[in-house]
Amino acid sequence: MTKPKTLPVLNSLLIAVAILTLCTLTLTQNSKYQVDYMDEGWDLTVNNKLYENVTISKIQTVLEKDIKFGDHIVLARILPDIGPLPNPTLIFRTRYTTLNCYLDGELIYSFGDDLFQKNNLLGKMYQFITLDNDYAGKILVFDMYAAENDPFVALDPVVLGSHDDIAGALVHSNLIIIATGVFLFIFGIAFFCIALLFISNVPEISSLLMGAVFCMNTGAWLLAYYNVLSFFVYTTYETQIEYFTLYLIIPYCYLLILHILKLKKDRIFMALMYISFGITLFQYVLHYVFNIHLITTLPLYHVTGLVGFGVLVYYSIMVAKDPKAETSTKVQMTGLLFFATGLLMHYVIYTLEQMNIKTQPIINMLLIAGGCLLFAMCQLSTYLIFIAEHYARKQENISLSHLAYADGLTNLANRAKADKTMEDLDESTEDYCIISIDLNGLKPINDEFGHPTGDRYIKDFSKVLSNTFGDRGLCARVGGDEFLVILMDTTVEEIEALIGRMNSALNVMNALYTEYERSVSAGYAFRHEFSSPTAHKVYLRADQRMYEEKRKIHEEKGVHTRL
Asked: What pLDDT, on a 0 to 100 scale, did the predictor assign at position 3?
């Protein structure tokens, strides 16, 4: 049988798989018009060195040496005739290069020259180039300058087709990433707000607060990495956002581990965490102060990431071996390990691409999206665990509080609760009434019928008391046969009517159960009767009036008055 502690992780896994499966099933798209993926048949010129009949996605394999910063690259070929197209368009994903597009010698599109002249970071971006309807047979030329070293690793083919068809195909091919990125960002915002509401009552939820920020950061990175962030907000800084958020991932992971496992006293861990923060800050300073681009320091991030992954694996094993570890801790560490594993596999695929070893893009998407979703689902599971535990603790506190302030026999408030309530009344300026009530004849009933019958008498009366006054104020048992009622904002007429109703209920019980007679003596007093009132003074006067009534009853029955 599955252990209960594994259920949150299994539920998270099932939800993430369901989301990925749904996205995968919706990837297919039927184009209305023909679409041509122009991968082969290009003439490539690098610094006046000509390479004929080149395949774009395999450019790195034909080059005699790697392309360096400042190299001049030209790609040219004749556009095919794929039939009449409404709004014919080219999509080309530039990678760290400028782009000037010519059609039969005429400049029709330009990107990045101004950024290149300023030595700003020219990142990756989808370029949509609109063509005339008579494009077929014309010579297409892409004139580019490399703004970084090795810009053509994993270059995508140029796509020709109707604008709507190729734009739709682009969205569908990145649907897993779009769905995951948007989900992470919205999930992070929502749970950040929710965590803020609970953090004062549930301090442990601080790790979820950090996890929510982590989700937002990861969602932004994922969208920027696949260049789909510009589908929502067009910006030439998309690649800067990609690297800025990427370099924050490792410090965030350390912070999450710190909050989850409370490792402030672990000197080695704290040293590694501070080093990761320092490296990230160093990378930002190099970029924004000295204009050494973020991509240049990517190897430093990889080294820091591998060390961080080792730290995460170590502490995950420690948590798994600890029988005292809480379920929420195990779930959070498992989610973080899922994410880190997905990121590690992504790094492996990235390394293979740098070595010109092609992989299926969908595999990379599923790995990284799966890791992100599993992390988010584990965050959700942890949140639910925290809320359930918080609710259980709250109920336990309520139960303990009830036991502390409840009379064991009648379940009414006890003397401690009555005393506390009267202390609170002294802080108030509102008028109130205190009723002192004493059972008549309890001692003779105990002597004649035994204490169990006397207890039943007390419990029967407590029910009458609750039914009469319970929805109006506090009902308490303050002694063996002594009771007290506190009512706010009431009148003499209302009090008399309620006492009359209480006595009527006792008379009905006497008519039905004739074993012994049930009756009470009651006296009441109001705050407004005193010039300098206190609850104690009001209670004493109500008690005096109760005894006056008891004396009258005893005199009528010829019973010796008990003072």
From this structure: 42
